[in-house]
Amino acid sequence: MQRVSGADRYETAVALSQRFAPNVPVLYLATGTDFPDALTAASAAALRGGPLLLTQRDALPSTVRAEIVRLAPARIVVVGGESVVGASVFDELAGLTPSRVRIGGQNRYETGERLVAEAFPTATQAFVATGRGFADALAASAAAGAVDAPVFLVDGLATTVRPSTIAAMRELGVRTVRIAGGTGAVSASIARQFTSNGFSVQRHEGLDRYLTAGAINAAVFGSTSGSISSAFLATGTDFADALAGAALAGGLGAPLYLTQQACIPHPVWVALNQLAPPSRVIIGGTAVVGDAVAANTPCAMVWAKPAAGRITDGFGPRDPICTPSGCSQSVHRGVDLGTGCRAPIYAASGGRVGTAGWVGTYGNFVRISHGAGIETAYAHMVDGGILVRAGQLVRAGQQIGWTGATGAATGCHLHFEVIKNGTQIDPVPFMLQRGIRLG
């Protein structure tokens, strides 16, 4: 576990850039007081092999200037117009590099398109994130940098994207568009527009910013141990530290996860432990990402009742089944809740979906890993009634499906199991210990 931080956002970006040796091919410089320009610049910096540093509008911080001198960049790209990075800062850079250029537009969307056009000769995929908020785009920028993909910002609440965005994607050769966030972040009509223009569209979303980052990372980096060498964690409540962190993470081919200050959101903790990166990098000081996060401490597990209805069949041995050839003893490995048909089913706690599909006599079946050797399982969902997919992170109480009578069920109900260290245990006392009464 490593922590990279400075006295403020500018020094934290410097601390991150110190992982680069001198004579970098390019350095990107963006404002430290707002997020949009740097979000697109992060994936560009990762592609070009340089760091992203932050500056004030009218003054280049002395620590940033000293770092630029150390890095001796062959080129500096100033991101944004004079309203965000002033002329005095741009002029000061003349003595620090053989080449400098300013890339800006009339707004954040045009600036992003120009940055992409300048940095990316081609790309088969592109990320799309809302320009109205920073959270979804932070993880998307790191993931994009890891796969040499650009990030385009859009007005996520609009019904259409700029024609120039579509044209830019076509010019690059983009075939797949990855949308960061749900329809509340980037509207369904925007997704349909990309589809109607011939792009394959994938949406990576979760119920909150932490789960959305997890969904992006699972899609790009996978969800099992051995796939990556490191992972970055940054606060999910501010953008500054993660901007430069996204550029470095992308260049290293590492995911960026978002965390709370005092603990790691439980589903994210599950995802990180399953990924098992050999090293983790905390971005920012203890005021933004506390020591408990560095110690891999999850937020408290929250538990919820998986469905309404009384218990109609308990855990344990059932009455023997007898035939002329003899009797056999069966064991019920969970409890049945008499919900009726098409009743909602909820995740009993947060975690990652391991199975979501048809499994023998279980019928339509979902199994969720909650970490610490605990899993829950949900069986007999109605056809078409599974609302989650394998690999997805879910929160406690999130709806994951609808009850049915698939598999060996004789009527609509939920068969609910709790698995501890690979063995089914009685869910009733287990849940009661956690404040949840079944039935």
TrEMBL record:
<feature type="domain" description="M23ase beta-sheet core">
    <location>
        <begin position="331"/>
        <end position="427"/>
    </location>
</feature>
<dbReference type="InterPro" id="IPR007253">
    <property type="entry name" value="Cell_wall-bd_2"/>
</dbReference>
<dbReference type="InterPro" id="IPR050570">
    <property type="entry name" value="Cell_wall_metabolism_enzyme"/>
</dbReference>
<dbReference type="Pfam" id="PF01551">
    <property type="entry name" value="Peptidase_M23"/>
</dbReference>
<dbReference type="Pfam" id="PF04122">
    <property type="entry name" value="CW_binding_2"/>
</dbReference>
<protein>
    <submittedName>
        <fullName>Cell wall-binding repeat-containing protein</fullName>
    </submittedName>
</protein>
<dbReference type="InterPro" id="IPR016047">
    <property type="entry name" value="M23ase_b-sheet_dom"/>
</dbReference>
<dbReference type="InterPro" id="IPR011055">
    <property type="entry name" value="Dup_hybrid_motif"/>
</dbReference>
